[in-house]
Amino acid sequence: TLSDRLTSVFSSLRGKGRLSEEDIDKTAREIRLALLEADVALPVVRAFIAKVKERARGEEVSKALNPAQQVIKIVNEELVEILGGETREIRHAKNAPTVIMLAGLQGSGKTTLAGKIVKWLADQRNTPLLVACDLQRPNAVTQLQVVGQRASVPVFAPQPGNGVGDPVEVARQSVEHARLNNNNFVIIDTAGRLGVDAEMMQQAADIRDAVQPDEILFVVDAMIGQDAVNTAQAFLDGVGYDAVALTKLDGDARGGAALSIRHITGRPIMFASTGEKLEDFDLFHPDRMASRILDMGDVLTLIEQAQRTFEQDEVEEMAGALASDTDFTLDDFLKQMQMVRRMGPISNLLGMMPGMGQMRDQINDVDDKDLDRITAIIRSMTPGERLNPKLINGSRRLRIANGSGVQVSDVNGLVTRFFEAQKMLKQMKNGGMPGMPGMPGM
Ligand code: GDP
Ligand code: MG
């Protein structure tokens, strides 16, 4: 399955320190194969891979996540995006009833879905009406009546005198019936064929023209794989629709169809059908579908937690270090610089905080190369030296310079800068904000 493949791709990334161009290419190739195997249409795969690659290249190396987790995060976010971002709500008619028409191949799950939708609507205190416009199959009307009974919702079906045999006439009359009976929703179940054919399309188009639905839903079986794209396109051309309902998501299908249909038709997926019972129904949630495709719900949760915890720990630690100057070590100094650089333009906010202006200036002078050098120097120090920089005498400076591949003057510069920062913090702690004019009377 798609998730198995992705899992093996990601596990090969585990333990890597940083994503190389080669890693990205290799991963992209694997994800491409995985998506194709999951029946995602080729143009969709291409677009998806291009986006993921672009982001993987541009992404800053995250402190909280390892490379595998980072790629999973990108793939997940792009999946959510391609699946439509947010859940789409039903558009209501200005004047009731709101008319929803279902179209799709035979066996796609229209009748079952009609029952689910009316139950869901009725549970929210609506008064829906089911309409039987599938007069093709002998038992279709009875099937809808059974569904209506289960959902405790009335069914409008052809009777002698109200247009027997003509689904267009039944549809037209059902809207009138709904108005008279205060049904605020009308759900029209239509006929389908096993394959796309002109006569069926025409019938659906005629029903559409007769009642002008507020929503036309294309109902599609998620298990049909690559065929989903052709069928979706045929219905788009033949009838047109506003949104898609995916059915049989309880089957093996991992969601290749969802990905393709959303991308190719540009229509949002609105409902998800996940079983034969009336309750097996949900609004379509792109984020849930994405984690289903990835099948890595736990991993995604862990990633979120890791990121949140990391950021929180770091900020708390820093706040603690800033509060007591005796604890402010070279390690803190380094962390502080890394943190401020990562914040990017946000670090300008520091300039607005009393006393922080100087600190900001000091840190803003540091570019990425400086930061690499400073990191190397501090890493070449012993833990004792980092905790107590006063220990760092001439011979230690030479050793540190050699160890980190810099000049002794660079080490001197860093140590000086550190002592300045420490002094500044001490002043702040003692109440005097450096750079702030004294306030008379305080
Ligand atoms: P229609 O021809 O489009 O009206 O399709 P039906 O609603 O009659 O469904 C065809 C078959 O698929 C029936 O046996 C349903 O019970 C089954 N079915 C419909 N939706 C789902 C679903 O979400 N999951 C599963 N497992 N079966 C479904
Ligand atoms: Mg049916």
From TrEMBL:
Keywords of this entry = Cytoplasm, GTP-binding, Hydrolase, Nucleotide-binding, Ribonucleoprotein, RNA-binding, Signal recognition particle
GO CC, sorted alphabetically, is: signal recognition particle
SRP54-type proteins GTP-binding domain location? 268-281
The subcellular localization recorded is: Cytoplasm
Task: Indicate the principal place this protein occupies in or around the cell.
Answer: cytoplasm
Its EC number is 3.6.5.4
Any coiled-coil regions, as ranges: none
Give GO terms: molecular function aspect only.
Answer: 7S RNA binding; GTP binding; GTPase activity
Positions with a binding annotation for GTP: 104-111, 189-193, 247-250
Keyword Secreted in record: no
Has the keyword Protease been applied to this entry?
Answer: no
Report which reactions are catalysed by this protein.
Answer: GTP + H2O = GDP + phosphate + H(+)
One Gene Ontology term from the biological process aspect of the record = SRP-dependent cotranslational protein targeting to membrane
Bias (Gly residues) ranges: 432-442
The UniProt comment on domains reads: Composed of three domains: the N-terminal N domain, which is responsible for interactions with the ribosome, the central G domain, which binds GTP, and the C-terminal M domain, which binds the RNA and the signal sequence of the RNC.
Please give the function described in this protein's UniProt entry.
Involved in targeting and insertion of nascent membrane proteins into the cytoplasmic membrane. Binds to the hydrophobic signal sequence of the ribosome-nascent chain (RNC) as it emerges from the ribosomes. The SRP-RNC complex is then targeted to the cytoplasmic membrane where it interacts with the SRP receptor FtsY.
Task: Report quaternary structure and partners.
Answer: Part of the signal recognition particle protein translocation system, which is composed of SRP and FtsY.
Q: Of which family is this protein a member?
A: Belongs to the GTP-binding SRP family. SRP54 subfamily.
Protein name in the entry: Signal recognition particle protein
What organism does the record attribute this protein to?
Murinocardiopsis flavida
- Please spell out the taxonomic lineage of the organism that makes this protein: Bacteria, Bacillati, Actinomycetota, Actinomycetes, Streptosporangiales
Name the encoding gene, please: ffh
Range of the intact protein held here = 4 to 445 of 532
